[in-house]
Amino acid sequence: MGDLAKIFKAYDVRGVVPDEFDEETAEAVGAAFVEVTGAEAVVVAHDMRVSSEPLAAAFIRGATSRGADVVHAGLGSTDLLYYASGTLALPGVMFTASHNPARYNGMKMCRAGAVPIGSDTGLAEIRDRAAEILRSGAGAGTDAGTVSRRDLLRGYAGHLRSLVDLSGIRPLRVVVDAGNGMGGHTVPVVFEGLPVELTALYFELDGDFPNHEANPIAPENLCDLQKAVLDAGADIGLAFDGDADRCWVVDERGESVSPSTITALVAARELAKHPGATIIHNLITSRGVPEIVTEHGGEPVRTRVGHSFIKAEMARAGAVFGGEHSAHYYFKDFWFADSGMLAAMHVLAALGEQDRSLSEVLADYTRYAASGEINSTVADQVKATARVRQTFATRDDVTFDELDGLTVSGPGWWFNLRPSNTEPLLRLNAEAADEIQMAAIRDEVLAVVRS
C-alpha cells in the first residue's frame, strides 16, 4: 500500500478499491482505531457496495485483535450508524464511499454519541498508527474481542418517527429515487404505515449503480425522479445518495429545490419548537437562510463547509439545527449528526399539515438566484484563486473573506471559490438578487478561473 495520506481526507477515508484501499489497510485501520480512541467496543455498519462487507470484516478483525468488542449492525445508512453510535453510546465506523462511483469505498468514523472524527480530532493519528502497523506487519494482536450481530433498522425508524410526527398528515403521493443505494433499505421501514402512496425508483441494492450515480447534487441524476413525479402526479420527489445521509427534494412541478430552501424551512420549524435557538449554516448556503432565521427569532451562525466542522460548531453553540448546500442536514436531537431522512420527514410534515402544493409552501423560503456548485479542473488552485481575487480587488464596495476558500461580496451578490479536498478542482457558488446578475458574476469568475 502507498501513502495513506492519499485516502485519509479531512473528515473521512475514501479511495479506489483495491488499488488504494484494501482489506489489509482496513484491518490495520481497525487496530489503529481502537488504539487511538481507547475504545472498548465499536459499532460497525456498511453500505451495499460489493467491497463494503469484506472491508468491514477486515476492520472488525483489526479492532477485535486489540481487545475491542464489536456490535456488527450489517447493512445500514450512514445516519443509521449515527443512531447506533448515539443510542449505544459507542464509537462507530461506517463503510461507504457515499456518492462516489462503484470502484470507490471508504470509512466515516465517530466517537460515542456520533461525535465526528476529523483530521484535527484523531483521524490523522489513526492514519499514522495504521501506517506503522502496515510497515511493521504487526496486524495481529493477542487480546481478541467479541463480535455480536444486531439489527437496528426498526429502532432507527422508530426513533426518527418519534422526532417528526407524520401520523396526522394528509395523504401524499411521494416518489423516492434511492439510486440503488441504502435508501432502498431504509425508506420502506421508515415510511411503513404512513399515509403515503410511495412510488419507488431503484430500490434494489446494487453497488454498481446500474441506473445512475447515487449523487443527487448532479442534475443529470435527478432526471428520472423529475419525470416520475410528473408522470405520477406526485406531491413531492425525494432522491437519496448512496449511503442515504443526504436527501434532495423535487417539487410537484418536477423542479429541483435548493438545499438552502430546505435549510430555511426546517430552521423555521425547529425555531417554532425552540424559540431563540441557534441555527448553523455553511458559507455556501443562500444569504436568505440567515435572513429567515433572524426573522423567526433565531441566531444564525456561519461556518465553513464539511460535516466535522459544522457538527463541532453545532455542539459548541448548542445549535438545534444546521444545513449545508450539499443537502446535509444536522439535528441536535439526532446527536448533532446529519440525517437526510429526518430532513425529508420535516418536509413531508410541512407539506402534509396543510393543503398548499410544495412549490407554494417553499416560495416563502426562496429569495435569491443561485448558480449551484460548478466545478472547474485547474492545474494550480492557488494561482487561479489569486487571479480571481486580483480581478475583483480594485472594485468599489467589494469585500473579501477567507473562512473557507475565497468569498467575495458586492452590492446584491456574492460568490465563493474553494478548492476540493480530494481532486484538482475549484468549486464555485454564486448568488445574486436575480438570474441576470447571478449569471453575469458566475460567467465572469469562470472565465478567469478557466483562462
UniProtKB/TrEMBL annotation:
Query: Which terms are listed as keywords in the entry?
Result: Isomerase, Magnesium, Metal-binding, Phosphoprotein
- EC assignment: the record states 5.4.2.8
Q: Which domain of life is it from?
A: Bacteria
Family according to the record: Belongs to the phosphohexose mutase family.
* Pfam families reported for this sequence: PGM_PMM_I, PGM_PMM_II, PGM_PMM_III, PGM_PMM_IV
Q: What class of enzyme is it?
A: isomerase
- Species of origin reads Streptosporangium lutulentum
Instruction: Name the InterPro entries for this protein.
Output: A-D-PHexomutase_a/b/a-I, A-D-PHexomutase_a/b/a-I/II/III, A-D-PHexomutase_a/b/a-II, A-D-PHexomutase_a/b/a-III, A-D-PHexomutase_C, A-D-PHexomutase_C_sf, Alpha-D-phosphohexomutase_SF
Q: Which cofactor does it need?
A: Mg(2+)
In its UniProt entry, what is this protein called?
Phosphomannomutase
The Alpha-D-phosphohexomutase alpha/beta/alpha domain sits at 6-132, 156-254, 264-368
Alpha-D-phosphohexomutase C-terminal domain: residues covered: 373-447
Q: Name one GO molecular function term.
A: phosphomannomutase activity
